[in-house]
Amino acid sequence: MDNQNKVRHVLGISGGKDSAALAIYMKNKYPNLDIDYYTCDTGKELDETYKLVEKLEGYLGKEIIKLRAAENSPINPFDHLLEFKGNYLPSHFSRWCTKELKLKPFEDWVGDRPTVSYVGIRGDEEREGYISTKSNIQSIFPFRKNIWSVDVISKALANKNRAKLAEFYAQELVSHKLDRTIEIANEPLSISFQQDKKLQMLMDLDTKAFNRVIFKFLQSTNYPLSKVDAYSVLDNDDNLIRQDIFDLLGESGVGVPSYYEKIEYTVDGQVGYYARSRSGCYFCFFQQKIEWVWLLEQHPQLFQLAIDYEKEGYNWIQDEPLINLMNPKRVEAIKREHLKRMNRIQANKKSPFLTDILDEEEGVGCAACFI
To answer: What is the DSSP letter of 130?
Structure first.
């Protein structure tokens, strides 16, 4: 097989905890996979992000390739694209930054070569990660019990493939579970028996057998994994959650980016904590207002640079210019509301052993959607 047709394995480092932990996890658990690591540099990341990339390179013993949009431009990628867009800031409604600074450099780098992309969506997250529109790029999710992307599952569990699925199970599964598994495989999807239910039942019976069956199914498609004879990740039935991620980072010595560290604040005599909940540009419009306050107080020079980008009618926050957040009374009001919300969340928890309250702050920024 020539190099252009050989399946490539890649893993994107966003600068956040999940993608960093995934790189560590894949190196430790699947050392046989020759993975190319990369990061998409917008030119507007926090210093902590660049430091994490350096630490990971040391742990992996391998360069993390830096991809940049507008590579030949004399200015950084974000500013180049902003100028091209007529100073129209990205927003929830026009996320050109994700497309132009993350997706396009990645897909240009991959080209047409069959590629498996590893994505750090955890087992305790209810969302899908990046799935490329390019047919030569296939996403795999090793942290989840279900490692397959939704497009693969939809095709494999389609009613027209029931007989094929049952046949594959007969070849792959030799146990007391076989009859029940084939019964479920043959049952058609309907309003009362939807795809998610069928998927869960098959995986509950035997996750590894399910993976082997899906792999067999893929051999009749054009997905990148149809071009390999064996795939070690099929034996994966892990389901990693948030604490597992922190454990991986801590035990490796790479550590967690410092912007995840909780910082104490006081309002009305009560103590609260804030932190940044995502990687990505320091002025990411997905930030909650308490995160903007974090930026103001922890990186005032970056907060001022974010203000400098705002023009009349073009703000990072939809309903408020950043200059308002420099008012001490406004900062106090944001902290007060944040503390009330965190107290409500804590009071509603059914167990003291559930995840940290800062989990409730986590959202989907551009890096989280992409990587």
So the answer is: -
Query: Is residue 321 domain-shared with residue 345, that is, in the same domain?
Result: yes
> Based on the domain organization, do 64 and 190 belong to the same domain?
no
Residues 33 and 126 in one domain: yes
Per-residue pLDDT tens digits for 87-116: 889 988 888 999 999 999 999 999 999 999
Task: Give the predicted TM-score (pTM) of the model.
Answer: 0.90
- pLDDT tens profile 209-225: 999 999 999 999 999 99
Tokens of 84: 């091209």
For 125, phi and psi rounded to 5 degrees? -105, 140
Q: Give 30: exposed, middle or buried? Use CB within 10 Å, 0-12, 13-18, 19+.
A: middle
Exposed, middle or buried: residue 210 (CB in 10 Å: 0-12, 13-18, 19+)? buried
215 to 200, 235, 241, 344: CA distances (angstroms): 17, 11, 25, 45
What value, to the nearest 5°, has the Cα angle with vertex 269 and ends 265 and 270?
55
- On whether both 33 and 65 belong to a single domain, the answer is yes
Amino acid 203 reads: M
- For the record, the structure tokens of 197 come out as 């239910």
CA 4/CA 136 separation, integer angstroms: 12
CA 256 to chain centre: 16
Number of domains in the chain: 3
Residue 271 lies in domain: 260-363
- Residue 1 domain-assigned? no
Asked if the model's pLDDT at residue 320 lies above 50, the reply is: yes
**Residue pair 106/119 in contact by the 8 Å Cβ criterion:** no
- Report the number of secondary-structure helices (H) and strands (E) in the chain: 15, 7
